[in-house]
Amino acid sequence: MTFLQLSRLIKLVLIATLLVACSNERVSDKQWPHSDLSSYAAVFSPGGKYVLVGDTDAPARLWDIEKNKVVYSWQNNEEVGTTTAVAFSGDGKVAATSEQDVIVLWEVATGEPMMRLSFPVKIKSMALSQHGDYVLLALYDRTAIYFDVIENRVLQIFEHDGKAVNSPINQLINTVAISPSGKYALTGADDTTARLWKLESGKQLRSWKHETPVNIVAFYPKGGYVLTGAGNGQTHFWNIKSGKEKYTLRTSAWPKDWQLPNFPSFKTTISAIDFSADGQYLVTGHPSQKICLWKVATGDKLDCWQVARKQALRPGVVLQAVAFSANDKAIYSESGNGIGQMWNLK
Description:
Blueprint: H1 3-20, E1 25-26, E2 30-33, E3 39-44, E4 50-55, E5 60-64, E6 69-74, E7 85-88, E8 94-99, E9 102-107, E10 113-118, E11 123-128, E12 134-139, E13 143-148, E14 153-159, E15 173-178, E16 184-189, E17 193-198, E18 204-209, E19 214-219, E20 225-230, E21 235-239, E22 245-248, E23 272-275, E24 281-285, E25 290-295, E26 301-307, E27 319-324, E28 330-335, E29 339-344
Parallel strand pairs: 1-26
Antiparallel strand pairs: 2-29, 3-4, 4-5, 5-6, 7-8, 8-9, 9-10, 11-12, 12-13, 13-14, 15-16, 16-17, 17-18, 19-20, 20-21, 21-22, 23-24, 24-25, 25-26, 27-28, 28-29
């Protein structure tokens, strides 16, 4: 056997070992049913005290996690519809629910509606500013708008042209985020790019190319970095100042100095993220029933585990939201099967 053949054999054995190791179903330390059938969207409040669950054909419900109690039930219209997007302001005092083309802002302390906003097209994704006085919306007309809630007017319109995918038309924007400072926005779209914008001027500052459509974007809360992830692709941590990638998240134990094989099991598609309060750790939820814990400084994976299914014969659980507890000693998760869970960190 030649050295090249031996090297290839070692790699194949390593791949097989890594694939077998991917299944690691773990029983949660606590579990709560948060939806009768399934949830459409979910988001945790800052600090993880509440989770807002957008139900299918039912009012959205704000749950006190530890008490396992519905605090408020919210719906945008007289007729109950599916809540298609949910969000919290950075300070956790304002919540938002979206049903198709209508958003209602709610005061978390009282449960009372603060503002009802209607738009001419359906809303795909949304993010609130620190105090909930601005909202960034990804719309199905292939734009994202930065909206002043108090003044009731559009301040900026963002678009992803189709140049990156050789298309003559603008591409659908899938996900949005507002920086903690309120000065910048992130958008991710079907054109396979994530883009950084200055909110005051609407100027594009950065564009990061991916292999597939971008489905998640987030600002590192301590500043200086952003995280972007592509569906059926890779998740990257970028330096804002230089525009360069710091690292790619890898769920496998594949050596960092080896190029990742073009194989689905080596992709790191994520559907939910949260950073710990001290900024040292990152938790990611995945569409494949998986939760992973990472070290932010290096991008090293510390642990991954599989979320138990509600019914054994129903494959797949999409993690819609993940969050660290207030003391960073536990992780909360919310799945599309309507189950909320808590995982103590060891």
